[in-house]
């Protein structure tokens, strides 16, 4: 098999081809407009004697070695005595979404700030969305589950399982981003156990909220896609131990300040 990108037709699921990555393949992939994709890439650099993880979000064509545009860069010190941050940033540290018009959105999965960055396709910053949110502590069961997930990811990376893991005691304020066909940005809150969305219009103004009328047991780890005829969702940590796929119809009322699924 090819280590790199595997491209499929969005509508039919037909395989269109594979492209070698020439090294560590990117993560957090999102399909872009035309023959491009938006990616997150984690690299390693040393500053003096201190190792750092380097994070880059950008856009490439399928056969490009260098990015067409770099949107967002971040870095973090790698502490080999406690690999919590390194593993979290590699697997869960950011959420990303792209619009049909080429806009790109990135939200650091922070436990102390609710912040979304947005750029035009050419890398021009166009929006920053912020909300004041109270911090919410994880339960003892959530802390145990988080440590288990971190150790599973460490094992997948070939890291010694005895390495210290110290999960953040607070829930992330944002846990998912999507852009619907109308160009609205959907932000899945992380401080609540049931899926709850803040939906922003193209100008970055809050348009409405979306909540569920029932409580799925695995809602705290949902991933989702907003399209026709509604929302497709699945869980990173399925409650029954096997994966379920939810298809939810979006019902809107007369008042746009609130919609219910």
Give your account of this protein's structure.
This protein has 261 residues and is mainly beta. It has a six-stranded mixed β-sheet with strand order 11-12-13-14-19-18, with no helix packed on it. Strands 3-4-5-6 form a four-stranded antiparallel β-sheet, covered by helices on one side. The protein has a four-stranded antiparallel β-sheet with strand order 7-8-9-10, with no helix packed on it. The relative contact order is 0.10. The C terminus is likely disordered.
SSE topology sketch:
Blueprint (H helix, E strand, L loop, with lengths): L3 E5 L6 E6 L6 E5 L4 E12 L2 E12 L7 E9 L6 H8 L2 E5 L5 E5 L5 E6 L5 E7 L8 H17 L17 E6 L5 E5 L6 E5 L5 E6 L10 E5 L3 E6 L9 E5 L1 E2 L5 E3 L1
Parallel strand pairs: 14-19
Antiparallel strand pairs: 1-2, 3-4, 4-5, 5-6, 7-8, 8-9, 9-10, 11-12, 12-13, 13-14, 15-16, 16-17, 18-19
């Amino acid at each position: 098999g090819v280590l790199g990108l595997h491209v499929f037709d969005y509508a039919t699921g037909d395989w269109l081809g594979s492209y070698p990555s020439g090294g560590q393949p990117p993560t957090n992939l999102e399909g872009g407009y035309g023959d491009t994709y938006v990616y997150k890439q984690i690299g390693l650099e040393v500053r003096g004697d201190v190792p750092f993880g380097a994070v880059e979000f950008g856009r490439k064509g399928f056969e490009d070695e260098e990015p067409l545009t770099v949107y967002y860069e971040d870095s973090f010190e790698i502490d080999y005595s406690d690999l919590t941050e390194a593993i979290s940033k590699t697997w869960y540290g950011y959420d990303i979404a792209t619009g049909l018009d080429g806009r790109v959105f990135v939200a650091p999965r922070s436990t102390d700030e609710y912040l979304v960055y947005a750029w035009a396709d050419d890398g021009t910053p166009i929006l920053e969305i912020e909300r004041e949110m109270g911090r919410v502590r994880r339960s003892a069961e959530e802390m145990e589950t988080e440590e288990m997930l971190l150790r599973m990811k460490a094992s997948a990376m070939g890291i010694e399982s005895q390495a210290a893991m110290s999960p953040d005691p607070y829930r992330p304020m944002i846990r998912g981003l999507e852009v619907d066909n109308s160009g609205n940005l959907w932000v899945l809150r992380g401080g609540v156990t049931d899926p709850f969305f803040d939906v922003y219009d193209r100008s970055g103004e809050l348009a409405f909220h979306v909540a569920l009328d029932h409580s799925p047991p695995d809602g705290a780890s949902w991933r989702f896609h907003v399209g026709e005829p509604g929302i497709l969702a699945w869980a990173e940590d399925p409650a029954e131990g096997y994966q379920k796929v939810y298809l939810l119809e979006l019902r809107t009322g007369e008042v746009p300040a609130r919609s219910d699924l």
